[in-house]
């Protein structure tokens, strides 16, 4: 049973190192399968967000010698969901949890993508200029 868990971790780590690869694989593969490019793009975003969260958390932890990366990301996601839920409740009088979750998840894709690029440049810069 341990080998299954280790295999899953290795596959996740391999895919998370360069998240554009699984994004493109899912986008073109699912797009060819369904013929719906918009749905393929959304599906690729959703899957890649999970990879980006893990990658950004590890990059943050390694660069800043911290162990708060994943918890910080989850905290920001929860705060964003709470704020969106508050706005939605004030405007409509009810909360649509599925819609809030999808909005946070998809905004998280863009934010995590931006942080991935920034933290990668910081890491590469540190490794180049640190002896």
Helix and strand string, N-terminal first?
Answer: HHHHH
Helical coverage, percent range: over 70%
> Whole-number radius of gyration?
17 Å
How many angstroms separate the termini? 42 Å
The number of distinct β-strands equals: 0
Structurally, how many domains make up the residues? 1
Total number of helices = 5
- Report the principal-axis shape: globular
Q: Uncertain spans, ≥5 residues at pLDDT below 50?
A: none
Mean pLDDT: 91
For the largest beta-sheet, the strand count, sense and barrel status come to: none
Structural class: mainly alpha
Explain this structure to me?
By secondary structure, the chain is an all-alpha fold. The chain has one domain. The protein contains five helices and no strands. α1 packs across α3. The chain starts with a helix and ends with a helix. It holds the Pfam family DUF3397. InterPro entries: DUF3397.
Blueprint of the fold:
Elements lengths: L1 H16 L2 H15 L2 H27 L5 H24 L4 H33 L2
Helix pairs in contact: 1-3, 2-3, 3-4, 3-5, 4-5
């Amino acid at each position: 049973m341990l080998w299954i868990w280790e295999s899953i971790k290795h596959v996740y780590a391999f895919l998370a190192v360069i998240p554009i690869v699984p994004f493109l694989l899912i986008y073109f593969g699912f797009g060819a399968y369904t013929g719906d490019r918009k749905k393929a793009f959304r599906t690729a975003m959703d899957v890649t967000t999970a990879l980006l969260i893990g990658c950004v958390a590890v990059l943050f932890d390694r660069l800043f010698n911290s162990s708060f990366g994943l918890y910080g990301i989850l905290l920001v996601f929860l705060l964003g969901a709470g704020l969106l839920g508050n706005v939605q409740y004030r405007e409509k009088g009810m909360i649509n949890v599925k819609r809030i979750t999808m909005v946070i998840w998809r905004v998280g894709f863009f934010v995590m993508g931006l942080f991935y690029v920034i933290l990668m440049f910081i890491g590469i810069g540190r490794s180049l200029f640190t002896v």
